[in-house]
Automatic annotation (TrEMBL):
Name of the protein this chain belongs to: Penicillin-binding protein activator LpoB
GO cellular component annotations of the record: periplasmic side of cell outer membrane
Main location: membrane
Region annotated Disordered, chain positions: 23-52
Classification via InterPro entries: LpoB
Native organism taxonomy: Bacteria, Pseudomonadati, Pseudomonadota, Gammaproteobacteria, Enterobacterales
Organism expressing this protein natively: Xenorhabdus poinarii G6
Key words of the record: Cell outer membrane, Cell shape, Lipoprotein, Membrane, Palmitate, Peptidoglycan synthesis, Signal
Pfam family of the protein (one): LpoB
Family: Belongs to the LpoB family.
Subcellular localization(s) per the UniProt record: Cell outer membrane
C-alpha cells in the first residue's frame, strides 16, 4: 500500500514540474482586406399597397332614408332611439364608423327622436362585456343593448352586396317586441 501511495505522489510531483519552453510568437504581417466587387443591387420587390378605402359620401346616402323613416306611420315622437353601428356584410373595406355617425347626425337634425349618446352606448357595451369594435352582428344583440339603455327604438343598419351593387339597408325596430316598424334601402356608390 505504501508503494502505491509513493508511486502516486511521485507521479503527481513529476506532473507538476514543467520545463519552461520558450516559444516564439507567430509572425504577424498586416494585410489589407480584399475588396470584393459586389454585384449591383437589384431593385427590391415592391411592397404591395394596402387596399384603398373608397371615400363614400354617407350623408347623401343616409339623408333620404332618414327622411323616409321619420315620416313612417306608427312612430311616436320624442322616444329614445339607439342607433346601432353599421355592419359591413360585404367582402370589402368600408368606413362603417363614418356611416354610423352620418346616420346619427341625420336623425339628430330631424329632432324627432332622443338619440342615445355614444358615451352611454360605449359605457353599456363595457358593462355588458362587449368591445367597442363589436358590431353586434345580430338583431337580438342590438335589441338587448337597447333594452339595457331603456331605448324605445333601435335602428339596425348594414351594408351588403346585391348583384355587384352595395346597398345600405336600415331597419327601425320596436325594442319592446322586436317588431320591424320600417325598413329602407339605398345604393352605396
Amino acid at each position: 500500500m505504501k508503494s502505491i501511495l509513493f508511486v502516486m505522489l511521485s507521479a503527481m510531483l513529476l506532473a507538476s514540474c514543467v520545463m519552461p519552453v520558450t516559444q516564439q510568437p507567430a509572425p504577424v504581417t498586416p494585410t489589407e482586406p480584399e475588396k470584393k466587387s459586389e454585384p449591383p443591387a437589384e431593385p427590391s420587390e415592391k411592397v404591395p399597397q394596402p387596399p384603398k378605402i373608397k371615400s363614400i359620401q354617407w350623408d347623401s346616402i343616409v339623408q333620404p332614408l332618414v327622411e323616409q323613416m321619420v315620416n313612417a306611420n306608427g312612430l311616436e315622437a320624442g322616444k329614445r332611439l339607439l342607433v346601432d353601428s353599421v355592419k359591413n356584410n360585404t367582402n370589402g373595406l368600408l368606413q362603417t364608423l363614418k356611416a354610423t355617425d352620418a346616420i346619427t347626425d341625420a336623425i339628430s337634425s330631424k329632432q324627432v327622436f332622443q338619440v342615445v349618446p355614444k358615451s352611454q352606448i360605449n359605457a353599456a357595451r363595457r358593462a355588458l362585456g362587449l368591445s367597442s369594435e363589436d358590431s353586434l352582428g345580430l338583431r337580438s344583440k342590438s335589441v338587448g343593448l337597447a333594452r339595457y339603455l331603456n331605448a324605445d327604438y333601435v335602428l339596425y343598419s348594414f351594408v351588403s352586396n346585391h348583384h355587384d351593387q352595395r346597398n345600405l339597408e336600415m331597419q327601425l325596430m320596436l325594442v319592446k317586441t322586436g317588431e320591424i316598424l320600417w325598413s329602407g334601402r339605398g345604393d352605396v356608390n
